[in-house]
Design brief:
This is Alanine dehydrogenase. One of its GO terms (molecular function) is nucleotide binding. It catalyses: L-alanine + NAD(+) + H2O = pyruvate + NH4(+) + NADH + H(+). It is an enzyme of class 1 (oxidoreductase). It is built from 15 helices and 15 strands. It has an eight-stranded mixed β-sheet with strand order 3-2-1-4-5-6-14-15, with helices on both faces. It has a seven-stranded mixed β-sheet with strand order 9-8-7-10-11-13-12, sandwiched between helices. Strand 10, helix 10 and strand 11 form a beta-alpha-beta unit. The longest helix is centred in the last third of the chain and has 22 residues. The relative contact order is 0.15. The structure holds 1,4-dihydronicotinamide adenine dinucleotide, pyruvic acid and magnesium ion (MG). The site of 1,4-dihydronicotinamide adenine dinucleotide has 35 residues, from helix 6, helix 7 and strand 8.
């Protein structure tokens, strides 16, 4: 199979869909890895690194999209890229379709088959292709939150760890999954006073067992959230209902009850955001203010640490990419129901329930899509 990896074109996105190691594995399995010239530079991989791994360097994205059977990327295809997708072509990348009608329509119109990293599952109830980037974004969230809290950035001028004689920042993390746990660990490590909210009791029990001495946890109700948010210096949004649009857990009216200069970091922004006032921002212009509260809503946070992120994502995607290339998407998905859960679009039809619900569109079951 010809596996194409174009340069990411989302603003300030420096990750790349295939590492030289992944290109080498693909080559060893008899596939051809087509890498766009310079695609790896942002993550510290040169064209020579890819050539040494057996990949072919291709000058333009247009040529990659024209030649490849499967496109492997990081971010959802941008409008220009969507025009280059074609019927029968396989797309393997993050999609986040629920809050993105324009992208969904373009993918349907293209006739391509699209497998979304973020909805592939594993047999422990996890999301193995989202997890590595959630680990990264979770660990980054207190770092960017601390920066947002600095006075020159519009924040309250509160130091995460405080100093002897002055209390640390109060940090509230809404959602105690992968993002939330990593965020809470780092925020606590910076010396902040951290509380994690989740609505899953088993998850809260786990957090209590493992991190009971490091950070607090509380059951997530509207009342508990409102009370904690009023007192918070930094709130990190980290909820997820897989594939679905994020629930709005802080309303605009609540902002006026918050401390002036408090910061909201909405990691769930890629699923539409979990604060009413969230709108996606970029690394070039990451923060904005609403009613005296600073918002950080970058939808591709891991791009800021492109090398770490590319390696972590590549480790997770490699076995799935090889299966797709070795077997073709139908057989690979037939053999692995977890990979089939990644199928979001096939031949002009949506195949993921939560996306259909979010957008009010009809859905073909993935099992039927396998036969279509
Ligand atoms: N902005 C970015 O660059 C990135 C964003 N993300 C996003 O971060 C979000 C979280 O991802 P993960 O931590 O991997 O998901 P996860 O599935 O590991 O954790 C989500 C947690 O939210 C909890 N939850 C759901 N509804 C809730 C509610 N109403 N109140 C409190 N908790 C609730 C669930 O019980 C679960 O424990 C996702 O939207 C993901 O796409 C992930 C990586 C990068
Ligand atoms: C998960 C995701 O959207 C990202 O890593 O950018
Ligand atoms: Mg994202």
């Amino acid at each position: 199979m010809k596996i194409g990896c174009p340069t990411e074109i989302k603003p300030q996105e420096f990750r790349v869909g295939m590492t030289p190691d992944a290109a080498r594995e693909a080559t060893n399995h008899g596939h051809t890895a087509l890498i766009q010239k310079g695609a790896g530079l942002g993550a510290g991989f040169t064209d020579a690194d890819y050539e040494a791994a057996g990949a072919k360097i291709i000058a333009t994205a247009e040529e990659i999209f024209a030649m490849a059977d499967m496109i492997v990327k990081v971010k959802e295809p941008q409008a220009g890229e969507r025009k280059m997708l074609r019927e029968g072509q396989l797309l393997f990348t993050y999609l986040h379709l629920a809050p993105d009608r324009a992208q969904t329509q373009d993918l349907l119109d293209s006739g391509c088959t699209a497998i979304a990293y973020e909805t592939v599952t594993d047999d422990r109830g996890g999301l193995p292709l989202l997890a590595p980037m959630s680990e990264v974004a979770g660990r980054l969230a207190p770092q960017v939150g601390a920066w947002t809290l600095q006075k020159a950035n519009g924040g309250r001028g509160v130091l995460m760890g405080g100093v002897p004689g002055v209390a640390p920042a109060k940090v509230v993390v809404i959602g105690g999954g992968v993002v939330g746990t990593h965020a809470a660990k780092i925020a606590a490590g910076m010396g902040a006073d951290v509380t994690v909210l989740d609505r899953s009791l088993p998850r809260l029990r786990y957090l209590d067992d493992v991190f009971g001495g490091t950070f607090k946890n509380q059951y997530s109700t509207a009342g508990a959230t409102a009370e904690l948010v009023r007192e918070a210096d930094l709130v990190i949004g980290a909820v997820l209902i897989p594939g679905a649009a994020a629930p709005k857990l802080i309303s605009r009216a609540q902002l006026s009850e918050m401390k002036p200069g408090a910061a909201l970091v909405d990691v769930a922004i890629d699923q539409g955001g979990c604060f009413e006032t969230s709108k996606a921002t970029t690394h070039a212009d990451p923060i904005y203010e609403v009613d005296g509260v600073m918002h950080y809503c970058v939808a591709n946070m891991p791009g800021a640490v492109a090398r770490t992120s590319t390696q972590a994502l590549g480790n997770a995607t490699l076995p799935f990419m090889l299966n797709l290339a070795n077997k073709g998407w139908r057989q690979a998905c037939q053999d692995d129901p977890h990979l089939l859960n990644g199928l979001n679009v096939h031949a002009g039809q949506l195949t993921y329930d939560a996306v259909g619900t979010a957008l009010g569109m009809d859905v073909l079951s993935p099992e039927l899509a396998l036969k279509a």
